[in-house]
Design a protein that fits this description.
Keywords: Dipeptidase, Hydrolase, Metal-binding, Metalloprotease, Protease, Zinc. This is Xaa-His dipeptidase, putative. This protein has 461 residues and is an alpha+beta fold. The chain folds into two domains: 2-183 and 378-460, Zn peptidases (Aminopeptidase, 3-Layer(aba) Sandwich), CATH 3.40.630.10; 185-375, Alpha-Beta Plaits, CATH 3.30.70.360. Helix content is 31%, strand content 27%. The protein contains eleven helices and 26 strands. The protein has helices at residues 2-9, 11-22, 39-54, 116-131, 155-162, 226-240, 273-281, 290-301, 351-362, 385-398, 442-460; strands at residues 58-62, 66-71, 77-83, 102-103, 106-108, 139-145, 168-171, 174-175, 178-182, 184-193, 201-206, 212-213, 216-221, 243-248, 253-258, 262-263, 316-317, 321-322, 324-332, 336-345, 368-375, 378-379, 404-407, 419-421, 424-425, 439-441. Strand 17 (316-317) and strand 18 form a beta hairpin. Helix 4 (116-131) crosses helix 11, helix 7 crosses helix 8 (290-301) and helix 10 (385-398) packs across helix 11 (442-460). The longest helix has 19 residues, at 442-460. The radius of gyration is 24 Å and the shape is elongated.
Length: 461
Amino acid sequence: MKINNLVDNMKESIVKSTQELILIKSVKEEPKENKPFGEGPAKALEYCLNLCDKLGFKTVNLDNYIGYAEYGEGEDYIGVLGHVDVVPEGDGWIYPPYAAEVHDGKIFGRGTMDDKGPMIACVYGLKAIKDAGIKPSKKIRIIFGTNEESGSEGEIDRYFESEKAPIAGFTPDAEYPIINGEKGLTIFDLVKELDSKNSSIAYIKGGQKANMVPDYCEAGILINDANLVISAAKEFVDKTGFDISVEPKDDMVVVKSKGVAAHGSLPQLGKNAIMQLFMFIGELPLEKSDIVNFIKFMNKHIGMEVYGESFGVGLEDEVSGKLSFNVGVVNMNKDKVTMTLNLRYPVTCKFEDMINGLNKTLSNTDIKIENMDHQEPLYFPEDNPIIKVLSKVYEEQTGDKTKLLSIGGGTYAKEMPNIVAFGPIFPGEPDLDHQANEYMKIDDLIKNTKIYAHAMYELAK
C-alpha cells in the first residue's frame, strides 16, 4: 500500500499536469519541419518528455513521431503505450475544450479521458514506484504516441526502426476490467463519379474523421422554391425529431443537419448528421440525377442503421457482439461523391465475411470501394500471463471481479506486440471519448494512477 499512499500525496501534481497537457491543442495538422503531425502533437510530446525528465526518468524523442520515458535496468522492458494527440473538439461543449476547467470534481477538456489523463496517471504511477525505492527486474517504459487518432501511420514504424517490442504491457486507452478482444477495423471510401448535368445539388460536406459519428453536415440545393424546402424540413423535423434547418441564399438553399458526435466504434451512442441529411434530401421532389440516386441508395442500405444489416454486413458473434457501421465523412462536388465508412467486424469473423457482403450490395452499381485500410481482429485467451497479472491487480485494487471484454475500438494493442488495453473507464461510467464535454473525474484519475502503478510493478518485478 506504500505505492497508494505516495500516489495520494501526489494528487495536486497529477491534476495540475493533466490540466497543463489538456491546454495543448494536439489535433493533427499539416507537417512542419521536424514535426511530422504538426505543431500540436509535437508540443504535447515535448511537454510529456520534459515532465518525465523533471521527475527523474531517462527520456528519448524519436524525431517527434513518438517518444518514451523509462525507469530501471535490463535488456527487456515492460511497455505502457498511449497517445497525446486528440480528435477535433467538435461542437456542443458546455466548457471550453482546451481550458481544462474543473467542475464538480471533474476535469473537462478534449483528451482528459482519451488519452492524456491516463498517460499522466501512468507517469505518476511510475514516479510512485521510483519514490518507493522499488528496483524492478525489467525496465518500465512509458511510450507517448502522437498519431493514434489518425491510424498511427508513421509513428510505430519509426519506433521499431530503433527499438524492440516490449515483453509485456498495456495501453490505457479503453475501459476496465481488461480488453482481451478487439474487433477487426476497416476504414474505406465509397466513391461514385458524377455527371453534373441535371444535378439539383451543388455540394454536400459533413463529418471530420472516419472514426467519429459526424455532428454536422450541410448541402446546397439548387431549387427555385425555397419555401418548398422550408415546409418540407418542418414536416420532416416534426416526424423524425432530427435537427434540420434551412437557410435560403441568392443562388441556392443551404440545408444544415446537426447530429450528436460519438466514437466511431459506438455509433449507437450518436446521431449521424450525414445520414439525417440524406434521409431529408431523399424526401425532396428533386429531379433524377447521379447524386440523387446515390443518396437514395444509401438511404435504402444504411439509413440510420448502425449495425450494417441492410448493407449485407450484419455480422455478429458471442465474444464481441455485432459489427458496427459508421458513416464518418462525406464530400460531394460536381465531379464525384466520396463517403468514408468505418466498419468494425466481430473478433471471430474474417475480413472476407465483411467484404463479400459489401461487394454483393454494391454489385450492379458504379459505386467503387477505394483506399481500404484494414487491421485484423485481436484476441488474447483468458490464461495468457499478461491477462492473469492484470486481472490480479484489478481485483486487488478495486475489489471487483475481473470480466474480460471485447470492444470495437482499435487500440495500440493491435500495433504493438504483447500489450492489451487496460482502463481507464470504470464499469458504469460513460464513454465520452470523441464526444463533446469529455471529462475525467479527479477521483478516477487518482484511482487509475494507483492501478497503473501496481500493474507496471507486477509486470516488471
